[in-house]
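Why run this: before we spend reagent on co-expression, it is cheaper to look at a predicted model of the complex and decide which construct boundaries make sense. The entries below are exactly what would go into the expression plan.
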Amino acid sequence: MLTDTLAKAILDLEEEQVIVLVKERLAKGDSPLDIVESLQKGMSEVGKLFETGEFFLSELVMCGEIMKDAMDVLEPHLIDSHSGNKGNIVVGTVKGDIHDLGKNIVVMLLKGAGYNVIDLGVDVPIEKFVEAAKESKAPLVGMSVLLTGCQEAMKQTIDAIRAEGLNTKVIIGGNYIDELVREYVGADYFANNASDGLKVAKQIFS
Amino acid sequence: MSEKEKKFVPEPGTCTPWKVKMEELGGIPGNEEIVKKDWERLDEAAYNFLWFWVHR
Amino acid sequence: MNEKVAKLYGERLNRYMTALDCGKPDKVPVSFGIGDWIVKHTDNNFQEIFYDWEKSIKAVDDILPDFDVDVFGGGPTLWWPPMWDAMGSKLYKFPGMGLDENSTFQFVEEEYMKAEDYDAFIANPTEWIATTYLPRISTEFENPSSLRGISALIRSSVAFSEYNNYMGASWGKWTVEHGVVGQFTGMTKAPFDTLGDALRSMKGILLDLRRRPEKVAAACEVIVPHNINYALSGAGADTRFPCFAPLHRGSYPFLNPYQWENYYWPSLKAVIEGLWAKGKRTYFYAEGDWTPYLEKIAELPDKSIVFDIDLTDAKKAKEILGGRFCLIGGMPTTLLTYGTPEQVKEQVKRSIDELAGDGGFILGAGGVVMGDAKKENIMAMLEAAREYGSY
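The model came back. Tokens follow.
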């Protein structure tokens, strides 16, 4: 059971109450990072309920929206606090694919879990993935894809990352992805939903 | 089209129903059926074109 | 139509009609279309196939003699992009126009209808579409009272009519020359999808369900008669063939059960029942997984739909809907892309064994067949359908 009222408000998807509580705690002088932690606690409960089938995509999308609004309030207060960062993860939708919903859910859950996510957006060229992986030295690169027709682009991107000799793991995510696709494009992991993706991240950063 | 233009909510399948047009005209000298047939067919085509962008 | 073609046409039509009515034809009917997987087997790139309708039709003409299907799903393109370009439509990016000339089209999802538009939409949807929505989604029609805007509308509506006529003529030719039986006539949607797909966007409508559920319900109710009308009018007078209904947000796990039962299902059911009352069957194109809702779907009038199995549990679909509704499916689209002809043949045999039973079954690919499907797999599927498909 959640005893934290803010985390509980997130779990109950009470958007107005969440914003009120965030502002109250800021006014009380609570550390913004503690507030983020409460938000994360609530969101992780939401993620669990999604995994067990009690919550649906509509709840996940609502939760994402509430988190976004809460983070907008918190952001100015967070600028100087870098602690609590579990590490860098590069995420993007592969070249030729402009779908961002799956990617955005993953990004939200990863950020919520305390990772520093470098979000490259959609239709990301191969070089951009390589460059970001190099610069950030991220141990994990996530590629999102909806269209099966874009798997060649995914394969080429992964080949390019390997060719640079980067020591980074690659996870691919998408509705139609399975072990066959993972093997074909040469990724290390695959996920069909955001929570599986989160589990892989936990494993890599542990 | 003038200040006489009526306010109405068109039924599905229509944009400017013949009925409304007739009310505005207050009747025509010739055979109504001849005019009405193509009016309604083209009006429905206009309706389908508009809703196409929603159903796509 | 010569005698040979007429005989073929008669056999195919009979198989399709018998299966739609849950009966047992001489063979399991097989249904398939020419998707954009054909592009790589032509001398053209995607842009040429999408933009040049003669090339697109030729691609179909070339393969049809070897394409032994009972129910034909149509050619490689859904739309003719010049109609969209004329309006400067923001809704799609097409090959060679916003996208690489070798990629397929993609939808650009935005909240083209804002939350504050609900009241105007509900009050007079056709008016709202014409005066608010169209200028908003069309860069060439931003100013409807300018020459640029007016000419855009004229160009696009001419293109709409030209293309419809051309496609009508092509289907006529395919029928006369190859005995082709079409899969459906007309199209419609679930009102919730009408609202969620092109108007409010997926995120928008999912949030609406919490923030303004009463508006969602009211808008869906207003859409019902329009979606009935759109299906019938797009089909001409035809009621023999079902109307196509691509269904989206009703698949698991978008909505929670309460939302599904109260906001998705009632208006879709009303459309299906309204069409059935006029003798028109709905092609329930259940993209994704609909397993949790099979019991509710079973409440529809007998035979009022043909249910397309994509990721829905096929055995459960047979168990719950079988006998009262025709089922179509049995070939996962991923197998057509990643499998081998042998695997495809095994799957056809397995699906026919499990699902064909006493009839009311059509073999087909559930969901959209993507551009990377392999032609040899598709041909293997059609072959195996004939090999194992005799009742």
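Strands of chain C lie at 31-32, 71-72, 92-95, 98-99, 106-107, 243-247, 282-286, 305-309, 326-332, 361-366. Chain C has 16 helices and ten strands. Bring this page to Monday's planning discussion.
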